[in-house]
Amino acid sequence: MSDFEKVTTGMGEECGVFGAYDMDGNDVASSIYYGLFALQHRGQESCGIAVTDTNGQRKVLSKKGLGLVNDVFDAEVLQSLKGNLGVGHVRYSTAGGTRVENAQPLVINYVKGTLAIAHNGNLVNAIELRKELEYTGAIFQTTIDSEVIAYHIARERLNVTTAEDAVKNAMMKIKGAYALVVSSPRKMIGARDPLGLKPLCIGKRDNTYFLASESCAIAAVNGEFVRDVLPGEIVSITKDGVDSDMSLAVSAEKQARCIFEYIYFARTDSTIDGVNVYHSRIVAGKALAESYPVEADLVVGVPDSGLVAAKGYSEQSGIPYGMAFHKNSYVGRTFIKPTQSARETSVKIKLNVIEEVVKGKRIIMVDDSIVRGTTCANIIKMLKKAGATEVHVRISSPPFLYPCYFGTDVPSNEQLIAHSHTTDQIRELIGADSLGYMEVDKLKNMVGDLKFCDACFTGNYPMEVPNEDISQAFE
């Protein structure tokens, strides 16, 4: 990790990927910038854009840095990134530390030209693949598994006639969760892991095609949502339009989308695989109200992902919905924390309780998760200090009991409060008057017929997972 520690409110994010290809030859850097801006919630540690001109010299121009999208890019930088095909990335480190070499997109120069690659997800066999590559002479510049994917694509490209086939051959070797956006000299390629763990979709504006982690990013560039890239699908976007290869797809029964996209990660205005995120959070809140009714005066949500679930709880229970918190939007997820005591104030910097709203009231507080318990305890303390007479906590996910190997920053078992405490012990530790978690068997109501992965709650992993913590492996 970097010299300063991270302070995060609960869960870490995944990453966000965005690609653009303007068939008319116009520069795409500013569109990628706005697309990444809309995906900023998916990663706030580093970001990058790499572009190429499909009609000119076809060299890749790129800019990457640590920090938020608007810290790393300004008008001058965007102006200098000339090219009509490009990929962008926002990153939250799930594997590999926070350093600028680990920022994406990764740009690889090799015999057949140049590839730029942006990856969201985590591989479960990255360690073996990396060792195998190192023994055949590969020299790694980063500590992220995305570089393993990039090497495999470049290596496979020497044996096949198209970049799509190189991506396909690489996909046959890698195991885990991934959404990839790759730019080769004259193509934009998108690929999604066969289980569909990570989201990816296609958009279009006039003669420009987009690939994005979420539909909200396509809306941000005034694009029209075309469709989701299907689990296991490789799409190739060229001057001739969109080609699709479904040869690596598995049956719908085996698919396993990450349920956390719907509970927490995705932006409320996104739709993933036909399921609207706002709707799924309303459903979650209603399920909590059915499972854990309680007499109270007001339902409030913890910003941001708890707000919609709180609305659902209020609608189902008939208890009024209120805004109890002011959120400071100008604080990134990560900031320098000079002393231990600052950990306590970190919540106050981001959230303030509106005393007027909660004073003298029995509050139902809805949040998306409890990871270590410290954030939740601090918020309850703030509510009671502001005069709330009771605080009943409702969580729109089941308790975290198992680590995630697919790119969600759920810490190891020892750090998960639910792993070593009963619900009643957790209630006592956080200072709540009552505590109710989403029931595992009600998760399916959030996503209709979609098959999903809930391994962090149940331990039922959709594939074999390593028995070591892969996030530290390359450090």
TrEMBL record:
Top-level taxon in the UniProt lineage: Bacteria
Top EC class of this enzyme: transferase
InterPro entries recorded: GATase_2_dom (IPR017932), Ntn_hydrolases_N (IPR029055), PRTase-like (IPR029057), PRTase_dom (IPR000836), PurF (IPR005854), PurF_N (IPR035584)
Needed cofactors: [4Fe-4S] cluster; Mg(2+)
Catalytic residue list: C15
UniProt keywords, alphabetically: 4Fe-4S, Glutamine amidotransferase, Glycosyltransferase, Iron, Iron-sulfur, Magnesium, Metal-binding, Purine biosynthesis, Transferase
Molecular function terms, GO-annotated: 4 iron, 4 sulfur cluster binding; amidophosphoribosyltransferase activity; magnesium ion binding
Pfam families xref list: GATase_7 (PF13537), Pribosyltran (PF00156)
Metabolic or biological pathway, per its Swiss-Prot or TrEMBL entry: Purine metabolism; IMP biosynthesis via de novo pathway; N(1)-(5-phospho-D-ribosyl)glycinamide from 5-phospho-alpha-D-ribose 1-diphosphate: step 1/2
Database matches in PROSITE patterns: GATASE_TYPE_2
EC numbers on record: 2.4.2.14
Binding residue positions for Mg(2+): S305, D367, D368
GO biological process, alphabetically ordered: 'de novo' IMP biosynthetic process; purine nucleobase biosynthetic process
Family: In the C-terminal section; belongs to the purine/pyrimidine phosphoribosyltransferase family.
Function: Catalyzes the formation of phosphoribosylamine from phosphoribosylpyrophosphate (PRPP) and glutamine.
Name the UniProt record assigns to this protein: Amidophosphoribosyltransferase
